[in-house]
Specification:
Helix content: 40-55%
Number of helices: 21
Distance between the termini: 41 Å
Strand content: 15-25%
Largest sheet: 9 strands, mixed
Strand order of the largest sheet: 3-2-12-11-13-14-15-16-17
Structural class: alpha/beta
């Protein structure tokens, strides 16, 4: 590999700036009647840019009346909703760094974050979150005020609406001007937020991101990803995660995109058809589930429906090959593709609302086969790559520079290099964090003396396009010294209709094995056809016929692997891996070490059988 292929740069860095500049500019430039939307009384209710700006200003002034000041820290513990964004912007314009906390975290984990960050206040959504804080408040002497987004929440000192009313009381034009002047005096290098990353092998680390870290990333990505100025997005990934925070919050504000908040992650399919978004950001798990649902619908239909689906998929695949090679499908292929669209793929597009211009995928690798399927169906997924420590975007595909299997080219101002000896991806630029809060040693371990952030991911550069092959810590080294990258193998397996979640295990073992959470809808139908008897799913996955079936499916999908890469045994798991159990991160990527620990007995049994 040449030196050129080990290094790529996205061009000159954007001029330094702040998120406060970005917010004020967006209000003045776009002035939409629906800057934000939320579901109430069965309908989506709009919030205009002017109302948003006023509520942010009044909340900020309310915070100052409570004694909060520049340089302090306030936590936000809430599901996605307009008040989350308003609280964030109010903190930023005062010069306060906010500390987002995932709403599904238990009280003991919240305690660590709030205490470590030294938060003087906390915004929280409802009574359930307030109960968690009540449980630990005695251990948080620095916590002065609890502000609830809902009204009349037990344990809250005041509600968000009361905070806004306090800030609006007696406000003069001079007060409003003074607020704006102070907000614009915040410096690009000032701390904007501390985001705690989940620790699988130790305590969480607080990633310190400055205004310019995130601002530069927004400006760079805004240039690469095409926004029309009248777009609508659906926000459902946790705003506590930097992917949604930067992409679904600041980016949408900066491009005049209306932000519609999903009621919950469970209502996303319904909200998609209600909001009819033009842009959706998600993690691969959503696309995997959509793909599985499409396959299930096709296979559960009659013989004709099945034949039409697989004919349409084959035609669309050939159409996609021509397009991806830079050509234009013509003649009979174009005609057949048009028919395939009407008969099959238009239904998939309708489920997204019928107006989607593109998906954006991040947080974990997306299986190339799934990406190609959506592209062939007329739904483009722009896959990108980044991490919390890089604010987050390092590289992203665009409609003009699109390569399935890659995460695109670096965005403006971002440098990327690959360490030849290990294949590790490193990045440098204005997007790289200030450091880990109160952890100088951990910071020094991650950012070297030349400013390169060591990502811990393994990748390759080809013609400027970056491809992720695995996590450095996820590489399996067998007892025989063979190195195996598990993610590409798992991604292949995700395309099988009988597989919901696969995890490869085998570090320091004689050979790798595969743990699989089956797609029970398909597996139970197969079991019924075979007249297998069982009373629950635990009994089903214990049947020798079922284990053998899943073993055959795995070996068929993974045929062609080197012998040392092929998992020798399959272990079946009854329940899906979850964020609540700590088995998946908030972006729904599997934590391999946690799975290895939680299912040690099952894993050991796969080796003991030898």
């Amino acid at each position: 590999m040449s030196e050129r292929e080990l290094y790529a740069r996205g061009g000159e860095r954007p001029q330094p700036g702040t998120l406060n500049h970005l917010f004020f500019e967006a209000v003045e430039r776009f002035n939409r009647p629906d800057a934000m939307q939320y579901k109430s009384g069965g309908e989506y209710v709009p919030i205009s840019h002017q109302e948003l700006a006023a509520r942010v200003r009044h909340a900020a002034r309310g915070l100052e009346k409570l004694g909060f000041e520049r340089g302090q820290r306030i936590a936000i513990l809430s599901e996605n909703r307009p008040e989350w964004g308003m609280a964030d912007l109010a903190c930023l314009t005062v010069g306060i760094a906010d500390v987002p906390i995932y709403s599904n975290l238990p009280a003991d984990q919240i305690l660590y974050i709030v205490r470590d960050a030294g938060c003087a206040g906390i915004f929280l959504s409802n009574a359930a979150q307030a109960a968690k804080i009540a449980e630990i408040r005695a251990q948080l002497p620095a916590l002065r005020k609890i502000i609830s987004f809902d009204e009349n929440v037990p344990g809250a000192d005041l509600s968000f609406s009361e905070l806004v009313r306090s800030g609006s009381a007696g406000e003069t034009a001079a007060d409003a001007d003074h607020y704006r002047t102070k907000a614009l005096a915040v410096e690009p290098d000032d701390l904007a937020t501390i985001i705690y990353t989940s620790g699988t092998t130790g305590e969480p680390k607080g990633v310190m991101l400055t205004h310019d870290n995130i601002y530069s990333n927004v400006v760079a990505c805004r240039e690469k990803v095409p926004f029309a100025g009248n777009d609508i997005s659906l926000s459902f990934l946790p705003l506590s995660h930097i992917f949604e925070r930067m992409g679904g919050h600041y980016m949408m504000l900066a491009t005049g995109t209306s932000i519609a908040y999903a009621e919950s992650i469970d209502t996303v399919p319904k909200n998609l058809t209600e909001v009819r978004p033009t842009i959706v950001l998600s993690v691969p798990r959503l696309y995997e589930k959509m793909y599985a649902r499409v396959l299930e619908n096709a296979l559960s239909g009659g013989g004709l429906k099945k034949r039409i689906f697989f004919w349409a998929r084959e035609v669309a695949g050939r159409w996609a090959d021509v397009r991806l090679a830079g050509g234009t499908p013509r003649g009979l292929l174009a005609l057949k593709y048009g028919i395939a669209q009407k008969l099959v793929f238009s239904k998939l597009q309708e489920r997204t609302g019928g107006r989607l211009r593109f998906f954006v995928s991040g947080g974990a690798p997306l299986a190339p086969e799934i990406n190609k399927f959506f592209y062939a169906a007329g739904l483009t997924i722009l896959e990108g790559y980044g991490l919390t420590e890089s604010s987050p975007v390092i590289a992203v595909n665009t409609p003009d520079e699109f390569r399935i299997g890659s995460v695109g080219k670096p965005v403006r101002g971002v440098e990327v290099k690959i360490i030849p000896e290990t294949g590790e991806i490193c990045t440098r630029g204005p997007h790289v964090m200030k450091g880990y809060f109160n952890k100088p040693e951990a910071t020094a371990d991650t950012i070297d003396s030349e400013g390169w952030l060591h990502t811990g991911d393994i990748g390759i550069l080809t013609d400027g396009y970056l491809s992720i092959t695995d996590r450095l810590k996820d590489i399996i080294v067998t007892a025989g010294g063979k190195n195996i990258a598990p993610q590409p193998i798992e991604n292949r397996l995700k395309t099988n209709k009988y597989v919901s979640q696969p995890v490869m295990i085998g570090d320091k073992r004689k050979y790798p094995v595969m743990l699989i959470v089956p797609n029970f809808d398909h597996l139970e139908r197969w079991a019924a056809r075979k007249n297998l008897l069982y009373t629950n799913r635990a009994q089903l996955i214990a049947l020798p016929e079922v284990v053998a079936k899943m073993q055959r499916e795995m070996e068929r999908v993974l045929s062609g692997l080197a012998s040392f890469e092929m998992p020798k045994k399959v272990g079946l798991i009854e329940h899906e891996f979850s964020v609540v159990k700590g088995q998946m991160s908030a972006k729904e990527s599997v934590k391999r070490r946690v799975i290895d620990r939680d299912y040690k007995e099952l894993i050991d049994s796969l080796y003991e059988a030898e």
